[in-house]
Amino acid sequence: MISSINATRRACAVGVAVILTASGCVLAPRDMDAERARLAVAGEAYERPRSARLDPELTPDADWRALLRHAFLANGDLEAAYLDWRAAVERVGIAAAYPNTNTFLTFSYLFSGGQASAWDRTTLNLGFDPMQNLSFPLKTMAAGRIAFAEAQAAGKRFAAAKFALQEQVLTAYAEVALLAARVHLQRSRVDLEALAAASAGSRATAGGAQQNVLAAEMARANAANALQATEAELRQAVAALNVLLGRDATAPLAPPATLPPPRDLPADDARLLAVATTNNPELAALAHEVAGRDDALTLAKLQYVPDVNPFAAVTGNAAQMAGAGISVPATLPRIWSAIAEARANLQRAEALATQRGLDRAARFVATLVALRDAERQAAFFADQLLPLSAQLAAAAEARYTTGAAPLADVIDARRTAIDVELALAEARTAREQRLATLEALAGADAETLADIPPSAPQMIAEPTEVSRVE
User: Fold this and answer.
1) What does DSSP assign to residue 430?
2) Contact at 8 Å (CB) between 151 and 88?
3) What is the three-class DSSP state of 176?
4) Pairing mode, if any, of strands 97-98 and 319-327?
5) What is the dihedral of CA 330, 332, 338, 340, to 10 degrees?
6) Distance between CA 396 and CA 411 in Å, rounded?
C-alpha cells in the first residue's frame, strides 16, 4: 500500500516537473540559427541611429558608388524590408513555441472536512489552459516550419528590395548624367544658332532675304527654350535621385561632368541566362513560400491527430494524482475543408512560382537583347559616325576658311556632330540602365555574375556592402 502511494506521488511529481520544465522550449527548424545570423549581419547598420550610420554625409560631387552606398543605409523602403524580415524571424519563435498554451493552476478548499487538517482540505491542480489544447508536438513543429519558410521568403524579399533599389539608383544616376550631357550639348547648339542668326543678319544687311533672319532667330529661340527645358528636367531628375537616397529633394547634388565609363559585364550571354533563371531573389522567395504551403498542408493533415493535455493534482496528504486529457478531433468536415484549402494554396503557389519564373526569364532575355543592341549602337556611333562627323566639320571649316563654302555649311556640320554626340550619350546611357535591370533580375552585381554557379543561389547582399564599391 505504501509503495503504491509512493508511486502515485512520484507520478504526480513527474507530471508537475514536465509541465513546469516544458515552458520556454521552441521547436524551430535546425537552420533557424543560420537565418538569425544572416539577419544580424544584414541589420548591423540599422541597429545604429540614422545620423551615425550616415556619417560622413554625402558630398555634392559624390560618384555613383558613394550614392549607392548611401542609399543602402538611408532608403526607408529598404529598411522597412529588413524590418519585415526581422519580424518574420521573430514569428518563428511564436509559432514554434512549446507548449503552445499557458499553464493553468487551480486552488480549492473544502470547508466541511471534519477533523482533517487545512492542508488535507486543500486541492491544487496544475495543468494547461483548458481554453486551448496542448498541441501534439508534430503540429507545433509544422507550424514552426511554416513560419520559418515565411521568414526565409522575407529574407529573399529583402535581397530583392536591395537589388530593386540598386536598379533605381543606377538608372536615375544614368539619367542625371545623360541630362547633364544634353545640357552641355544644348548649350553648344544655342551658341551655333546664335552664330547662324548673326550670320543671317549680316547677309540681310548686305541685301540678303529678310526671311532667313526670321528663320534663324526662330531657331535660336527654340534652341534656348530647349536648353531651359532640359535644365528643368535635370533639376527634376536630381530631386528624384535625392529621394531614392533618403535625402531631401533639394539637397545639393552635382551631376557628373561627363558620362561615367561603361561598367564591365564579364559573363557571356549563355552564362547570364543560366544564372538569371536560378539566382533571382524574388523567385527564391516564391520557392520558400511553396515550401511553406507544403508544410501548411502537412499541418492540416495533422489535425486528425488527437491533442493530449497532461495534468497533476494534490489534495493535502490524502491523494496525489497525475493524468492526461485527450482531445479527440470531432469536426471532421472542418478538417477536410482545411486540407482541401491547404492543397489549393500549395497548387496556387506552385503555379505562381512557375509563371513568375517564365516571366523573369523572358524579361531577362528581352533586357539582355536591348543591352546588346545599345552596345552595338554605341559602338556604331563612336567608331563610325563620330569620326565621320568630325571629318565633315573639319572639311567644312577648311572650305569656309578658303572661301569655298559659306558659314552655313560649317554650322550644319557642327549641328550634325552635336546630334551624333547626343545619340552616342543616349546609347551609352541605355546600356547602363539595361545593365542595372539585368543585375536586379539576376540578383547579383555585374562584376560577380561570371563567378556564380548557375545552380547555386547567391547569398543575400547586405545593405552595408556592395561588391563593386569595396
Assistant:
1) H
2) yes
3) helix
4) unpaired
5) 170
6) 9
List for the chain the helix, strand, coil content (%; round to 5). Answer: 70, 10, 25
Closest CA to 262 of 86, 64, 53, 18: 64
Peptide bond just before 99 cis, omega within 30 deg:
yes
Grid look-up 493553468 returns 104
C-alpha cell belonging to residue 314:
494534490
Residue-wise pLDDT tens digits, 44-93: 888 888 878 886 778 888 899 999 999 999 898 999 999 999 999 999 99
**Do residues 339 and 297 lie in contact, with contact meaning Cβ atoms separated by under 8 Å?**
yes
Peptide bond into 56 cis (omega under 30): yes
Q: Which of 182-186, 190-194, 226-230, 403-407 shows the lowest per-residue confidence on average (mean pLDDT)?
A: 403-407
Whole-angstrom distance, CA of residue 247 vs CA of residue 362: 35
Strands 122-128, 103-109: parallel, antiparallel or unpaired by DSSP? antiparallel
Residue 247, helix vs strand vs coil: coil
For residues 447-461, give the mean pLDDT. 57
- pLDDT of 318 > 50? The answer is yes
Per-residue confidence at 320, pLDDT binned at 50, 70, 90? confident
State the pLDDT confidence band at 415, using cuts at 50, 70 and 90.
very high
What separation in angstroms does the CA of 8 have from each of 4, 198, 275, 319? 6, 114, 65, 8
pLDDT in tens, 131-150: 788 888 888 899 999 999 99
Q: Which residues pair with 104 in a beta bridge?
A: 127
How far apart (Å, rounded) are the C-alpha atoms in residues 97 and 83? 21
End-to-end CA distance of the chain: 79
Separation CA 460–CA 285 (nearest Å): 12
Average pLDDT on 399-414 reads 87
What mean pLDDT is reported for the chain? Answer: 84
pLDDT value for 420: 95
Contact 265, 434 (CB under 8 A): no
Q: Nearest Cα to 449, choosing from 261, 273, 260, 283?
A: 273
Nearest alpha-carbon partner for 24 in 93, 75, 86:
93
CB contact set of 229 (below 8 Å; sequence gap of 6+):
none
The three three-digit cell numbers of residue 67, written as one number:
550614392
Write the DSSP string, 406-429: -HHHHHHHHHHHHHHHHHHHHHHH
